[in-house]
Design brief:
This protein is α/β, with parallel strands linked by helices. The protein has twelve helices and eight strands. It has a single domain, classed as Aldolase class I (TIM Barrel, Alpha-Beta Barrel). An eight-stranded parallel barrel has the order 1-2-3-4-5-6-7-8, surrounded by six helices. Bound molecules: phosphoenolpyruvate.
């Protein structure tokens, strides 16, 4: 039985005081009932260290939203895996569609980042997903297959087992358009079959595959009840504690 995972990607939102308020509200909400789900938050870099101190002794885990694949050097504005570790991160989101489209990250760059995160003992949340144009021209499976096989190139099975995959159709991110539960389940099943082909049935069965794209309290229960959907990567709805908590408690 795979554990459900609810991860909140805050993107470029919340300064330090906003981060403190949001984390305090999430903590309060969780302390009332607790949860068996794994809850991950990904605040901006400037809030990571404070977030780490605030979530100490809670079930909440800390993620960064991105990192560079080099350890140090002349990469102005970038941040390394070691720096994220020292700020208290356990996870890092890699390959988010906003990184791929706005910041031109290629499958090769994402592959380097995945390898660097794994060798630095950071657990990657590896995002993939097709654009609307790709879906409408029937290319969803081939795009997802390319992103997965290039992203995982050269990654051993034991390292792969540390990765969480997030399927996020680009057309559903921040648009209010959600994939139907059937559409999402179909791609999640396809991804699990792909993992079986690349690694093994055992790894495919263990692999946590999140859905992301306009997940909200009113659609999360149905999406997350699908056989191959193991949780959600939430953007907009994680910025309010009540909606993030409702999603956590919808499964
Ligand atoms: C995301 O940024 O990963 C995301 C899924 O955003 P939203 O929930 O706002 O669509």
């Amino acid at each position: 039985m795979r554990r459900k995972v609810i991860a909140g990607n805050w993107k470029m939102n919340n300064d330090l005081s906003g981060s403190i308020s949001l984390i305090s509200a999430i903590k309060n909400g969780l302390s009332e009932k607790g949860t068996d789900n794994l809850v991950i938050i990904a605040p901006p870099y400037t809030s990571l260290e404070t977030a780490c101190a605030l979530i100490k002794d809670t079930e909440i885990k800390l993620s960064a939203q991105n990192m560079h694949f080099e350890e140090s050097g002349a990469f102005t504005g970038e941040i390394s895996a070691g720096m994220l570790k020292s700020a208290g991160c356990e996870y890092v989101i890699l390959g988010h569609s906003e990184r791929r489209t706005i910041f031109s990250e290629t499958d090769e760059i994402i592959n380097k980042k995945l390898k660097k995160a794994l060798s630095s003992e950071l657990l990657p949340i590896f995002c993939i997903g097709e654009t609307l144009e790709e879906r409408e021209s029937g290319k969803t499976n081939s795009i997802v297959e390319r992103q997965i096989s290039s992203g995982l190139d050269g990654i051993s099975e034991s390292d792969f087992n540390k990765i969480i995959i997030a399927y996020e159709p680009v057309w559903a991110i921040g648009t209010g358009k959600t994939a139907t539960p059937d559409q999402a389940q179909e791609v999640h099943k396809f991804i699990r079959n792909l993992i079986e082909k690349i690694y093994s049935k055992n790894s495919a069965e263990k692999c946590i595959i999140l859905y992301g794209g306009s997940v909200k309290p009113d659609n999360s229960a149905e999406l997350l009840s699908q056989n191959d959907i193991d949780g959600a990567l939430v953007g907009g709805a994680c910025l309010k504690s009540y909606s993030f908590l409702e999603i956590i408690y919808s499964v």
